[in-house]
Amino acid sequence: MSIAIERNASHFALVGAPNSGKTALFNALTGARQKVANYPGVTVERKTGAIQTPAGNRVIFFDLPGTYSLRGRSPDEEITRDVVLGRLASEPRPDFLLCVADATNLRVALRLVIELKKVGRPLLLVLNMIDIARRRGIDIDLAKLSAELAVPVVTSVAVRRGGTEELLRRIDELAAAPQIRRENTWSPPSNSDLRAAQREADRILRVAIAVPPKPDTLTARVDALLLHPVGGLLALLFLLFIMFQAVFAWARPLMDLISAGFEAMGGLVHDVLPDGLLQSFIQNGVISGVGSVIVFLPQILILFLFILLLEDLGYMARAAFLMDRIMGGAGLHGRAFIPLLSSFACAIPGIMATRVIDSRRDRLTTILVAPLMTCSARIPVYTLIISAFIPDKPVWGIVRLQGLVMFGLYAAGILSALGVSFVANYFFWRDNATPPFMLELPDYKIPRLRSVVIGVYTRAMMFLKRAGTTIFSMMVLIWFLASFPRPPLGAADPAINYSLAAVIGSWIEPLLAPVGFNWQISVALVPGMAAREVAVAALGTVYAIEGGKEAAAQIGQALASKWSLATALALLVWYIFAPQCASTLAVIKRETGSWRWMAITFTYMLALAYVAALITYKVASALTG
Amino acid sequence: MHNDVGPESTRHGLPLGLARRGFRGRITTIEVGSGAQGPTATELERRLLELGFVEGASVEVLHEGPLGHDPIAVRLNDTTIALRRREAMAVYVT
């Protein structure tokens, strides 16, 4: 995993508090020449980039996770500490430290500089966003600041072309000069050390920096509305409404286009290739398999576009502020809002986003309930069953029954997540004190197109990679299971009744019969473990192969004629809870570093699904006779 | 919540956790009260210090959360920090 340590290159580690613009500076310095991987054994992103400086020096930059001190509270912060101190065997100890600070917000950054001086490596303080500071009339005496700190200081504007020229010049000077390395005298600072360091930082601020009496009030004016107890919540609800409207309505034309494209491709294959195994494999296995996954890409892109825009704008911390008390009632941290919101697209990025929660307890609770959020992959299952079984009649005004059922499924997911979190807090964490909620509300900033594009792109690639590997191979597997062994010559029953899929279905069926599932559903649930939406394609495959080509085009009609309403409702309820996603379970295992949490998630979800589906089936059967 | 105002709180001023929106003042001391003990108390104090809550810093309560006026957003010198009132009880202000 680790890149080879280059002897003739200088290693610069970028250290800084959250919101210091460190990553923007890293992007500006390294451009497209960056490598993103994971640190061995942990899921912290390892970002490095090698460049050739104007003076011809080879420099490798490390972008380290944001931290307020080297103490290492979360996995991210521990990595920062260990890399800075050279404690990781896989990483070279950095030759130089670049402490990145937001020039408009130096107070905490200067304390970090004072702490970093003890590490014994040459240190350069980079005052980022200096343009914003100057515009606000913040007057920084660079010479005095540098003299008081005994650390060289340089300014930069990460987001503007040429904004890093001065920084690169200083980097060349550092790389060329003979290195003076002192002993590392860092030890975890005590509370009185922290106090003393902050007082010293405040003293330096007073002598080196003049802040105008009236600071920037744009953020304050916007916050007066967005953090208003009533207006703020309404604004948040409105934003969520727009977001979901975009995810579900705006993505529709693109999704229709994609599915039509794949259908046409399948038709082409059907016409070109002779009837037989190869034709069936390419049309029903490969093309419809890949298509059933790619079709979600527009939704995922739109959702991430919103999340990244709101994050870069500085709104996400405000959302956490507004939601903290509301979610706190169920024992969730305000910061869990962002991961849980992401989970509406897909639980995998949602679970990965829990890394921002520094308390292990809050993080585990969030991971536990994230899969209950209605992810995009459930939508095709819900849509298929709702359109086949729920009549599209008006209920009240413009509210129609189908939409109401869909809303109910979303609400059931959210409510059960709150309930599970409440119960988890009671069972697992009864003896622990509630971890604190403290976070900085950064000033609003206009999002940079470039960083948003990079973010959306990496997430899209992550999703496609998953589609290209796990889901695709499961699709091929279901095709294989449904096609082999071939039926004997002159067989009277449909071919699938002789296949392996039928054998597996008949094994699971007795267990699922009490909740009203027939063997076709039982068969479809197995490949549905690859990803929930695969179950739709699998049902299609099962019924298409059984009923011929016409049924494949109208899976819904086929289901409506073969299932009872009680079965359909039970399957809907099953999908709210069931741990029908191997990738999510794998990510939980990776993120928590233990099989235990994966097993707990799997078990509680399966138990909830079974019980809820059972109740639904019994009640619905009784009511419908 | 006003039951929490004991003799301790008057010694160093008002706990920030009781301050209402619009309050302006200076931090007199950081002291985690009897509610938390041992490592939890030290840890909470340390986290407050790391965010810049130290004696002498100026504070202003800018916003209150929608439910129960909790959490609060505090202007701390030149930054804005959101924290729950429970944690803000450790910060005494005048």
Question: How does this structure look, described?
Answer:
The complex is a heterodimer of chains A (625) and B (94). By secondary structure, chain A is α/β, with parallel strands linked by helices. Chain A has 26 helices and 12 strands. In chain A, the strands form 3 sheets. A 7-stranded mixed sheet of chain A has the order 2-3-4-1-5-6-8, sandwiched between helices. A two-stranded antiparallel sheet of chain A has the order 7-9. In chain A, strands 10-11 form a two-stranded antiparallel sheet. In chain A, helix 5 packs antiparallel against helix 7 (191-208) and helix 25 runs antiparallel to helix 26. The longest helix of chain A has 42 residues, at 231-272. The N and C termini of chain A lie far apart (61 Å). The model of chain A is unreliable at 547-553 (pLDDT under 50). Chain B is α+β, with helices and mostly antiparallel strands. Helices cover 24% and strands 36% of the residues of chain B. In chain B, strands 1-6-2-3-4-5 form a 6-stranded antiparallel sheet. In chain B, strand 3 and strand 4 form a beta hairpin. Chain B is globular. Chain B starts with 6 loop residues before the first helix and ends with a strand. Mean pLDDT of chain B is 84; it is low at 1-7. At the A-B interface, helix 3, helix 7, helix 8, helix 12 and strand 12 of A face helix 2, strand 3, strand 4 and strand 5 of B. Strand 12 of chain A pairs antiparallel with strand 5 of chain B.
